[in-house]
Amino acid sequence: HLKLLLQPTLLRDRSSLVEIPPSISAMMKEAALSIISARENGLQFGRIDVPIPVTAGTELDDWPGGIKQKYSTLLPMLGELMKELNFSAEAMAERRFLPEGKDDAVGLWTDNGVTLVCFPTPESIEALNALIPTKPSAINNDVPSNGTNPNNGDILVLVNHQIFLNSFSKQTSKDFLESAKIIYMLEKLNVKGPKSMPVNGLMYRKYPQPFQISRRIGGGQYVPLKSFTTDDLPKMADVEQIFFDDSAVRDSDLSLFERLKRQLPNF
Prior knowledge:
Elements: H1 24-40, E1 45-49, H2 66-84, H3 89-93, E2 96-97, E3 107-111, E4 114-118, H4 125-129, E5 155-159, H5 171-178, E6 181-192, E7 198-206, E8 212-216, E9 222-227, H6 236-250, H7 256-263
Parallel strand pairs: 1-5, 1-6, 4-5
Antiparallel strand pairs: 2-3, 3-4, 6-7, 7-8, 8-9
Helix pairs in contact: 1-2
């Protein structure tokens, strides 16, 4: 799998580039290796978030078929993931859904000590709680002090959850999602620099390595801006400030034409 080049300091040497997976297959292999590492460290509940390629989108809607269209697109990607996790052909071929989420494409696959659930929703939380290997301790990812896993490495992994939190979300939803360790994440970021300068980047995490944010530069390459030291998802306000500070330095010498071209791609 690809090596992630980490740069721990901000606004200094950026001679190294962040290597991101060149294909969907490579990305899902990275995610599988992250799940394996998490199991080896005794984690029993986690999540992965991966980008899904847009298929059959329109000018008005990337996903006119809704969540079921997304499910059809994610399914072969999950096949790559399950293959790397040594799922049997029979387990990979199953098409099961949580009763609380069938209409929302909350799919379920289990084999070899791993349970994968795609597109979980707030309505499916109660059923998902029952699937976490150890209760009640696993909800907090508690592991015995001797490092052993009482369930022989069993783990529940949420894939591209649909539990979107806001000020009106129930506390049960907040607690549930916060208790799921982010094992793998590859997420595009679109933020603003000084004078509303568009800045594109990535939030990248491969367990057990830390979260890293990087900025896109010419040629579709990414330079690292900062690696975080904790397992917690960085706060978006902090991430936006890092990109803002970087843009204030990196984009300070852009000409008026270059600035207009950034802000108006068709200029």
